[in-house]
Design a protein that fits this description.
This protein has five helices and five strands. With 146 residues, the protein is α/β, with parallel strands linked by helices.
């Protein structure tokens, strides 16, 4: 299969850095188009009347963080090709799949935290959800990848 549109799902973790590196490295020899998606997770939104932080301000800060993170990965790993950027708001695993469908990606690249035990039961795994529900191949980079 020839991959022509690679979607790289990232967040602000070291695991995402490994996924970005792998996604851009794979795209280069294939001359594939690349898109990076960073989902603004509403559950991380900080709203505090005591600190004077409104929902709009919190959303703006999260969007700035997403844009900054995407730009850092582009600066580190991209070599002079256009990169599409997506920063939807919602549940990460569902938004990754939505963007993959809308952008017509033929491969999703993402990292994993390899949670286990109770933490995995309580929080679930974004990568696991995407693997189980994606209609296209998913490349998951391991946390210990060099």
């Amino acid at each position: 299969m020839q991959y022509k549109r690679i979607l790289i799902a990232v967040d602000d973790s070291a695991y995402a850095m490994k996924a970005a590196r792998a996604g851009f490295a794979l795209a280069k020899p294939l001359n594939a188009a690349v898109a990076v998606v960073y989902v603004i997770n509403k559950s991380k939104e900080v709203v505090s009347a005591d600190l004077g932080i409104t929902p709009e301000q919190s959303k703006t800060l999260l969007l700035q963080e997403a844009d900054k993170t995407i730009q850092q990965f582009i600066d580190l790993y991209n070599e002079n090709s256009e990169v599409f950027r997506f920063t939807p708001e919602g549940i990460p695993e569902k938004e990754i799949l939505n963007i993959a469908t809308e952008w017509e990606a033929d491969l999703i690249v993402m990292g994993t935290h390899t949670r286990s035990g109770l933490d995995r039961i309580l929080t679930g795994s974004t990568a696991e959800y995407v693997i189980r529900h994606a209609l296209i191949p998913v490349l998951v980079t391991p946390p210990r990848m060099t």
